[in-house]
Inverse folding.
């Protein structure tokens, strides 16, 4: 079993992806299919970057047991104004600084949804909470 927690700092592009990189390093030591590894890493990175560019900061947790991998990303606001619109490929509220740093293409949430086995999103002006699950098969 694996349980880890990571702080994510808003607008800190130098550290953006640090949590996802650690998750990838951890998962590479396990007997996972390359496709599952790729899916988890893609979703983790997209969610982490969303916290960096769209929130005032937050944290992520990584849990793995014999049945599933669960990633949770929680931020401290401002929340997603229009979740349906945010789930539309190409829609982005990223600013010029985000774009200058290579982020904000508007594919974060759609990519997470596409790669995950289960995605739950709770959002309010106080913040957003993503629960992203991947189910393991044939892993002992």
């Amino acid at each position: 079993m694996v349980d880890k927690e990571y702080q994510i700092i808003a607008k800190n592009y130098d550290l953006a992806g640090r949590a996802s990189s650690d998750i990838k390093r951890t998962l590479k030591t396990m007997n996972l299919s390359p496709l599952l590894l790729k899916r988890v890493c893609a979703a983790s990175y997209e969610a982490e970057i969303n916290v960096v560019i769209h929130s005032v900061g937050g944290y992520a947790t990584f849990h793995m047991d014999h049945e599933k991998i669960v990633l949770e990303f929680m931020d401290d606001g401002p929340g997603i104004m229009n979740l349906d619109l945010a789930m539309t490929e190409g829609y982005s509220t990223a600013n010029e600084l985000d774009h200058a740093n290579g982020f904000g293409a508007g594919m974060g949430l759609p990519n997470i949804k596409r790669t995950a086995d289960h995605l739950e999103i709770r959002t309010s002006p106080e913040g957003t909470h993503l629960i992203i699950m991947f189910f393991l098969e044939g892993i002992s």
